[in-house]
Fold this protein.
Amino acid sequence: MIFSEKEIEQILQSGRQPAAVEKQFEHFKTGFPPIDLARPATKGDGIVSLGDEEIFSLLEMYDSFLDDNKIAKFVPASGAASRMFKELYSFLDLDAPSERSDFFMDNLEKFPFKEDLKKVMHRDGFLLEDEKRKNNFKLIVEYLLTEKGLNYGNLPKGLLRFHTYPDIVRTAVEEHLVEAALYAKNRDNTCYMHFTVSPSHLEKFKDLLENVRPLYEKKYGVRYDFSFSVQEAATDTLAADMDNRPFHDDKGNLLFRPGGHGALITNLNRLKFDAVVVKNIDNVCPEDKINPTVVYKKALISYLLDLKTKTDFYLRKLSAGEADDKMKAEMISFAKNKLLIDGVDENNLMEKLNRPMRVCGMVKNEGEPGGGPFWVRGENGKTSLQIVESSQIDLKNPEQKAIVDKATHFNPVDMVCSFKDFRSGYFDLTNYIDEKTGFISSKSYGERTLKAMELPGLWNGAMAKWITIFVEVPLATFNPVKTVFDLLRR
């Protein structure tokens, strides 16, 4: 590939190197190899199931861990809500009633945004009740989704009203404040929270959080320490045309597109904490149902820090040359039975143990979409525990399809991570990405079609070389809002 001088200048101005862009672009020609699934991770074979006594013990350990460890919460919050309202947009375009539009209208009073919707309509001389009686679906949805009213179709999920209480209606981001106060409060009562947001909505997030900060700090006796980052433009990927040549926009410039949530590994990499909780913005329970989430999140944090403490002890012994044969045998047993690492022996102990670590909650599969936990076979023939998305699997391969069909759990994106090393420094997370786990999809640019490349996903390919432990968590901890109708669940 030969870039013109103008293109090279554009690449350099974006913070990239032409050689790196060219290397990444080659994936359009070669594609990404499918994951080689060995078997699903199941209870007793890759997924840990915690008993009541063990959970009680972990909760006791949690309090003691707060003395020496600093915890933060990392919330990817840049996702737009437009897909949430896909059905409403289709009804709006058709301007014709349907079973789902009737359901929406019948339940309008139950949605958490109803009072805000009434206000913006009343401002323009409309009464929501009257328009509902007239079955004026189009007008109501326009005021909900467009700049004419609440503009929900163009806002990120984090800023939307999610749950109604007797005295308040909380947005998704406010529910994350509540969660942080209940399971991510440090010994000094500080809750460190980092949000990744889009540049266009950064000020809206800051304004909302500063407005509600006093309310939640007083209610829960905490102090919030907010920080923000945006998905760096340098992580965008160059688009291709259908002949695998660089795609140019209407002005003749190379077109770079966001590289997906995998780009957020760069944002995560900047945090300096002992444990970081990672949870999606739309997965929050109403407070009256939050207890299982709090219990299991504390348990996951303790489980991680307990394993991390033991691992670091062993690494210090190895580093100092103080591990005799008996201790090395103990380390190998620990790595195999507790960290679930395949292929560990006396010769590679340091390499296998000295990596970032994560404990991932996994939920029994009851029909929810999403990736899942699997044992994956690497190029060396050894297996490792991985979160795998369906887009990574060759489902036309009957053997791989059979493994998928036997899967018992799915990934709710419920992780606790540690990337502090045994010397009290921090791992460079970009060194632990499996670059072969990206994804190519077709997108539209005006009337033209292009190929877009997504980077290895944050919880699958971007963390593929981490130490990964799966722990079963109850379905009650998983309450995602994927469509507007999910807002009716309580």
User: Anything to note?
Assistant: The chain has two domains: 29-78+171-488, 86-155.
